[in-house]
Structures are given as C-alpha cells and as structure tokens.
Design a protein that fits this description.
The chain has 205 residues and is an alpha+beta fold. Helices cover 26% and strands 26% of the residues. It starts with a helix and ends in a 5-residue tail after the last strand.
Amino acid sequence: MKRILPTLCLAIGILLLGGCGGSSANITQVEAEPVGPTADYIIGPSDTLQIHVWENPELSVTIPVRPDGLITIPLVEDVKAVGKSPTVLARDIETELSEYIRTPQVNVIVTSFRGTYRKQIRVVGQAVSPQSLSYQSGMTVLDVMIEVGGLTEFASGNRAKIIRWEDGKQVQMRVRLDDLISDGDINENVGMKPGDVLIIPESIF
C-alpha cells in the first residue's frame, strides 16, 4: 500500500499537468486566431435609425431614412444620412444641434437596415410584394421569392430575368421562376449578388 500511494499520486500529478498543458495550448490557439477588420455599416435608403440625444429625450427619435437619403429630426431639417456610417452621422447631427444645445452628445443606432443600393436586391414587377431587400451572404433567388411572397396570378415567371453588373457591364440572366416554384427545378435556384435587380414580367395572355 505504501508503494502504491506514491505511484498513484504521481499518476494524478501527471494527468493534472497534462490537462493544464492542454488548456494552455487551447488558449494560445484561440488568442492566435486572426481577427479581420470590421468595416463600418453604411446607411442606406429606408434604413430605420434610432437617434438618441443625451439628456434631451424630447430630441431623441426613431425615424426612417427617406428615399432621397435625408432625415429630419427636431431642430434639424434635411440632414444627409445615406452613404455615412452611424458614427459620422452622429457627429454631423452634433454639429447641427450645437447651435441650440451646449456640447450635444448623439448616438445613432441602425435598428432596421436595407443597406445602400449597391448592397440591395431589388424586385420589380409581378411579385406579391415588390421591394428592395438587404443582401445576405448565400442568398438565392428562391430566398428572394419567399421574402416577396411569391408570384402574382398575372406573373409570367418563366420570363423573369436578373439584371446584374459584372466588370462594369450590365448582364441579363434568364431565370424560370415557374419551374423553380411550381415544379421544384432546383437548377433554376441561382445565387444572387449585391445590386441584382429581379424583373418579373406580366403574362401577355
């Protein structure tokens, strides 16, 4: 028993050291993982912004960005929002408000976003709910059709086309939406890209 106890203690010690070594290796590996830079979000038309003016609740509002890219808040009219990051817009609003408030502090939060036109997918024509959608990585034309509620009864789905810019040139791609939606032809479920325009014509009959 006296010989077994030291051996057992030694074995436990080795296991504990091995466990600690393994944990250290894992921690080192996690810390060594590169973290890529995160670009600021750029505000686009139809985004919804929550604008908070510190210690001035009467000036704090939640508003949509107008199609012309401008917003209007109490005391400040027609501030350009499109094409700016929330931080830049906040500083611009502070500059405008400084005429009325001493050292205003403004925060801008995007609560509902569509992105700039170059990062949207626009659906026009015979969709149940034609609209602009915020592009999501991996989005397909079927995802788009689900978002817009499918085709209307007057749609000519198999004559639909995607307008896309590639290498500075406009390219048209035919997509057979009837075959995709009604017949489940997965070959027609093409991938979408930011800036695509999906046009769904009306049936001629």
